[in-house]
Amino acid sequence: MKISILDDYHDTVRSLAVFKKLAGHDVTIWNDHVQDVDALAARLKDAEALVLIRERTKIRAPLLERLPALRLISQRSVYPHIDVDACTRLGVIVSSSQHAGTPSYAAAELTWGLVLAAMRQIPQQMEALKAGKWQIGVGHSLRHKMLGIYGYGRIGAVVAGYGKAFGMKVVVWAREATRARALADGYAVAPSKQAFFEESDVISLHMRLVDATRHIVTAGDLARMKPSALIVNTSRAPLIEPGALVGALRAGRPGMAAVDVYEEEPVRDTGHPLLNMPNVVCTPHLGYVTQEEYEVQFADIFDQITAYGAGKPINVVNPQVLESASRRG
């Protein structure tokens, strides 16, 4: 098969042990990021299978309609960036393992790294030291402070465990069924969303981006946070109302933020407001970007390609394509 892999920024995929799963296939790897439909259509005109690295490139109908050879999109996790209806209409199978029960420990670890970095001003202190200054301020300890976990899914549960290990009081806010799971795991549940934002010293967002969660964190929610509080977002930028985070930080509630995700990625504009605030720690969507996590993710992705090649597709998001093919057969 002719396989194209998009957005492999550091040319990492070919170095993975699991890359050997694609032996015998004609593989093209693209190391830059392109969203222009004309450019993508030219690059992918002969591709029979398309490998996506999470949500880096949007695959919509205008592009899909110009890829006559495409028969499979293989990726891992959620797929808000893919027009699944258009794929179904055009006979393109979307295979995406949802890895039930397997959290991204890499994302949870980065979340905790950002908590520590922001609370102890680690990036700012490092830059000051390089500039010849010695201790530019006083940070904050975590022990006995309240960690608010907004969304108690696979990653949120892991981060809650990290908070407990650091001696923090962990409180959860989420939809009702998820709150019940948090209670069963021994964590406190906030009496209300308002109390959750008012009382937490650190809030970490851990929700999938769907219609129900888009802009679920409002300017009003942020305005309730303490001037000493930190909000961390390693999930999805649109969980927060547009412009609300920058406005809240400028108003001083919360006092700090640490973010790994942005409305438009990759961020190339050095004038981006979050990159120019002294009370914000920013990283370039590193949550799942580790060698070990890539091995796990691409094992699933390449297994999906192998299964398709064997005539037995797995993790199919749009089984209607299979049903249509069966009827034609």
Structural notes for this entry:
The model has no long low-confidence stretch (mean pLDDT 96). The chain has twelve helices and twelve strands. A seven-stranded parallel sheet has the order 8-7-6-9-10-11-12, with helices on both faces. It has a five-stranded parallel sheet with strand order 2-1-3-4-5, with helices on both faces. The two termini are 21 Å apart. It has helices at residues 37-44, 61-64, 84-90, 105-119, 122-130, 154-165, 176-184, 193-199, 219-223, 244-251, 291-309, 320-328; strands at 2-5, 26-29, 49-51, 72-76, 93-97, 146-150, 169-173, 188-189, 202-205, 230-233, 256-259, 280-282. The longest helix has 19 residues, at 291-309. With 329 residues, the protein is an alpha/beta fold. Helix 4 (105-119) packs across helix 6 (154-165).
SSE string, helix = H, strand = E? EEHEHEHEHHEHEHEHEHEHEEHH
Placed side by side, the strands forming the largest sheet appear as 8-7-6-9-10-11-12
* Residue share in helix: 25-40%
Report low-confidence residues grouped into runs of 5 or more. none
The general outline is: globular
Percent in strands: 5-15%
Name its key features.
single chain, 329 residues, alpha/beta, seven-stranded parallel β-sheet
Q: Could you write a compact summary of the structure shown?
A:
With 329 residues, the protein is of the alpha/beta class. It contains twelve helices and twelve strands. Helices cover 34% and strands 15% of the residues.
